[in-house]
Each structure stands twice: as structure tokens, then as C-alpha cells.
Design a protein that fits this description.
single chain; Helicase, Ruva Protein, domain 3
Length: 496
């Protein structure tokens, strides 16, 4: 009886094991993970259905086969099983199948009570799509960074006077954008006040060096006997009166950033030699030291002088000129890009309104006067004049006569907008002055009757001369956005 009971219990126990096995098999076959089991010799004893589907093989092709054989058949480039067999510890790796799938595999060794390896369980997860998504995310982030960088550059240009409507200024903006991407030296050429320092700062602000210092040096403002120590610094005890701790020069202060050398033509010849060495060798020698100090600085130089003429005169080194003139930008005078004057005027007006908490506006005729004037002091003169207008004009609307007062104050030798730049035949000079007076009078009064009263000539003379004038003027139309509304104006300019 006892024997029969034992048999029944054994049958029930076997049935329980069978049921557990089926449940275990069901779990293995329905899980999203890929699971394989190998014995202590690395021979596979079990793989689940997802694993078979992934590798495109049946269980008969894997079960009873060693991991090394699986690698030789090319089913897997490298199996986790062989790795765990060697290390005898838990391992994690990314594995690629023969059909291009990427798996994140965890290999877990199982030991008996004596610490001997019994089995290796490999649990894998398909990360192919995750990997693709990560690649796309990285590509998207790179593209986003590129867009952000380009938008930053555009914003820096749009928020600065560098922008312009004229063809010549659009070319300058294009060069600024291109030169900011490379690390070569740049030479800026242009008249006093045309904005060379702002162009240099713009190149720095949109370059990869923008997080580092921008050091501006006016080479003409430093006494000759101090130039070398200011540029290259000195070591302790270099000369009488030197700082006991030594001093870093402009090159070291600007390390990693940009050193802007304004008025480069004012540097004496003896210093030009050391400057050339610094540019060529990327190193400097401090005063009192024989040890070279490496430097990482971008040089932007600027001048209003004709360096080619200085080279012929022997006051500027030809080799230094070519070293500085790797890239160059000729910044046009304001009189050569009158199309930009209204936009610049509005930019400065907005800037100073914000600075001084004002709300001044230009009358349309004020824009006409601004655009008709040649601005011999260029950007600097205009900026200074508009700042003064914002601070001194009692009315909220700045009229044309306010502009004229500023212009006359700037140059008492000028008669309103009249300027003779060179010797010319007296008859031509008289005609030129006459045309400018008629043009100014028409821009302000519009009617020939009122013009004749102001100019103190007959109305018929005004009509006759103005008909001649019409053949010698050009009309410039420009738009200004004020409070998101577009305002269009027209200005008549003399054809010279």
C-alpha cells in the first residue's frame, strides 16, 4: 500500500514538473527578451522562440552546438557565452547579428555549491531601433546646434549696425560671416569712424572664440617706449621700475580669443619684427626672458592708412603686411552707401532711446536730411550726433532742422550740406552748389513758390533750374520698421 502511494506521489510530482516546465517554456517563448542557455562547456541547451526568429534558425541548429561553432557558422560575430566562459563573471556587451541587428546582452554564470560553473544564461534585448533613434537624435541635435549657431550669428548681425541694404555692405556682411568660420588673420581697411572696431568685434562674436577674450588695442595711443612691454609683457626684474611679479602682455591676456590691433600702421619698425615673429611662430618672448611663451590668439588688424605706400616709403614691413593681409575687408565710407543711412539712423535712435529711457522719433524729412549728408566722420559722427539729438532735443519728434543744427555744429566750415572735396572749375562748382541748394529746398518746402521765397530768387528761375535738376538726380526709396509697421520714404540724391 505504501509502495503504491509512493508511486502515485511520484507520478503527481512528475506531472507537477511537467506543468512547471510548460509554464517555464511558455514564459521563455512569449517574453520580448531573447534568452539562451549553455552548459559549463559552452554548448547551448536551450533557446527561446524569439531567439530563433531573430537569428533565423531553428532550435535544432543551435541546441547541442557550442558557442564557438555558432561563431564559425557566422550566426553571431561573437557570443556572450565564450566571454563568460573565460571571465567566469557577469558580463554585458553589445552584439551584432548576421542580419544587422544590434543586441544588448547580459551573460550570467550559474555555479553549484562547490563554486563550479554549471550554466550560462544569456538575456538579450534588441536595441537596433533604439540605436537608430539615438543616431537620429544625435543628428537632430547636431542640426539644431547648427541652426542655433546660424541664428545666433544672424541675430548678432541684425542687432548691430553691420547690417545694410547697400550692395557693398551686404558683401561686407557676407565676408564677416565667412571669415568668422576660419582662424586666419584679417586686415580691415577704411576711413576713420567707418566702424572697423565694430566689424572686428562682430567677427569675434560669431566665431568659435566668442567665449574667450576680445582685446582691443589702439596702436597709435601707446607711447613707443611702452609698446613692447604692453604687447609682450615682461618678467620679474626685467628693468628698473618693473612690477616685481612681472606682467602679461596683450597676447597672453587675449589667450584663446581675439587680439584686435587698431591703427596697425602706427607700430614702429622695431616692434613690427617681433610682431611678425609672434604671428609666424605662434610664440612670444617677454622682455627679460629667453624662454618662448606659446600663444593661441587670432589677430585682426585695422588701418585707415595706405600700407602699400608705407611699404614703399620704408615705414612698414612688406612681410608683415602680407602676414596680416591673409583675409581683408574694405569697409566703405558712409557717403558711398547712402542706402544704409536711414536704417543706421533708426538703429542708433532705438539704441539710445533704450539707453536713456526716451521715446524719440525721426520726422520723415529728418531721414531725408540724414540720407543727403555725406557724413565725413562716418558711423562715429552719425552715432555721436544722434545720441546728442536724443539727449538735447526737447520734442519727441526730431525734425530736419534739428539734424541741420547738429551737422552745422560738427563742421562750421560747411554750408549746410555743401561740400567741395577737390579743386574744380568755378563754373562747375557754382552749378554744383546751386543744385544742392535746390535739392535741399525742394526736400523741405515742396512748392516752387516757397522755394523762391527762401532762396530769394524769382519763382520762374526756380522752375527753370529745377527742370535742369530733375535730369541730374536719382530717387532712393527706403523702408523703416517702427512698432512693426513699415514706413516708406523717398530721398533725392545728386548724381555726381
Amino acid at each position: 500500500m505504501e509502495d503504491n502511494k509512493t508511486k502515485r506521489e511520484l507520478i503527481e510530482e512528475l506531472n507537477n514538473y511537467k506543468e512547471i516546465y510548460e509554464e517555464y517554456k511558455l514564459i521563455l517563448d512569449t517574453t520580448y527578451d531573447f534568452i539562451s542557455i549553455a552548459d559549463k562547456n559552452g554548448v547551448f541547451t536551450r533557446i527561446n522562440r524569439p531567439c530563433m526568429e531573430l537569428f533565423g534558425v531553428s532550435d535544432s541548429e543551435i541546441i547541442g552546438v557550442s558557442a564557438e561553432e555558432v561563431e564559425r557558422k557566422g550566426i553571431l560575430k561573437k557570443t556572450m557565452t565564450t566571454t563568460v566562459l573565460k571571465s567566469k563573471k557577469k558580463e554585458i556587451m553589445v552584439q551584432e547579428t548576421s542580419i544587422g541587428k544590434k543586441l544588448m546582452i547580459t551573460g550570467i554564470p550559474m555555479f553549484d555549491k562547490k563554486g563550479k560553473l554549471q550554466k550560462i544564461i544569456n538575456i538579450s534585448r534588441d536595441v537596433t531601433e533604439i540605436d537608430k533613434l539615438n543616431q537620429r537624435l544625435n543628428e537632430t541635435m547636431e542640426l539644431l546646434d547648427w541652426y542655433k549657431n546660424e541664428m545666433y550669428k544672424k541675430q548678432q548681425i541684425d542687432n548691430n549696425f553691420v547690417k545694410g541694404n547697400s550692395t557693398v555692405m551686404k558683401k561686407v556682411v557676407e565676408l564677416v560671416s565667412v571669415f568668422s568660420k576660419v582662424d586666419a588673420t584679417v586686415l580691415l581697411k577704411g576711413e576713420t569712424g567707418c566702424g572697423k572696431n565694430r566689424i572686428a568685434k562682430m567677427i569675434h562674436q560669431i566665431s568659435d572664440r566668442r567665449e574667450k577674450p576680445f582685446i582691443q588695442v589702439n596702436c597709435g595711443a601707446i607711447p613707443d617706449n611702452l609698446l613692447e612691454s604692453e604687447f609682450f609683457g615682461y618678467v620679474e626684474g626685467a628693468f628698473t621700475g618693473a612690477n616685481k611679479n612681472g606682467k602679461n602682455g596683450y597676447f597672453q591676456i587675449a589667450e584663446g580669443g581675439t587680439l584686435f590691433l587698431d591703427e596697425i600702421g602706427e607700430i614702429p619698425l622695431h616692434l613690427q619684427v617681433k610682431l611678425l615673429h609672434a604671428l609666424d611662430q605662434k610664440e612670444i618672448y617677454k622682455i627679460g626672458s629667453s624662454k618662448a611663451t606659446p600663444i593661441n590668439v587670432r589677430i585682426i588688424a585695422a588701418t585707415k592708412r595706405d600700407l602699400s605706400t608705407m611699404i614703399k616709403e620704408g615705414s612698414f614691413r612688406e612681410d608683415l603686411y602680407y602676414r596680416l593681409n591673409v583675409l581683408s575687408i574694405n569697409i566703405p565710407a558712409l557717403r558711398k552707401r547712402k542706402e544704409d543711412i536711414p536704417a543706421l539712423a533708426h538703429f542708433f535712435l532705438t539704441t539710445f532711446n533704450k539707453k536713456y529711457f526716451m521715446n524719440k522719433q525721426f520726422h520723415p524729412k529728418a531721414y531725408e536730411v540724414l540720407a543727403s549728408y555725406d557724413w565725413p566722420g562716418n558711423i562715429r559722427e552719425m552715432e555721436n550726433g544722434i545720441e546728442r539729438l536724443v539727449l538735447t532735443c526737447d520734442a519727441n519728434v526730431i525734425e530736419d532742422y534739428h539734424i541741420l543744427n547738429i551737422i552745422n555744429d560738427n563742421d562750421t566750415d560747411r554750408n549746410n550740406l555743401i561740400e567741395i572735396k577737390d579743386i574744380m572749375p568755378l563754373k562747375e562748382a557754382v552749378e554744383y552748389v546751386e543744385r544742392k541748394l535746390l535739392l535741399q529746398a525742394y526736400g523741405r518746402y515742396k512748392t516752387t513758390r516757397r522755394m523762391s521765397e527762401v532762396l530769394k530768387i524769382d519763382q520762374s528761375t526756380v522752375v527753370k533750374n529745377y527742370k535742369k535738376l530733375e535730369r541730374k538726380v536719382r530717387m532712393m526709396t527706403f523702408s523703416i520698421y517702427i512698432d512693426d509697421r513699415c514706413h516708406q520714404y523717398s530721398v533725392f540724391l545728386l548724381k555726381k
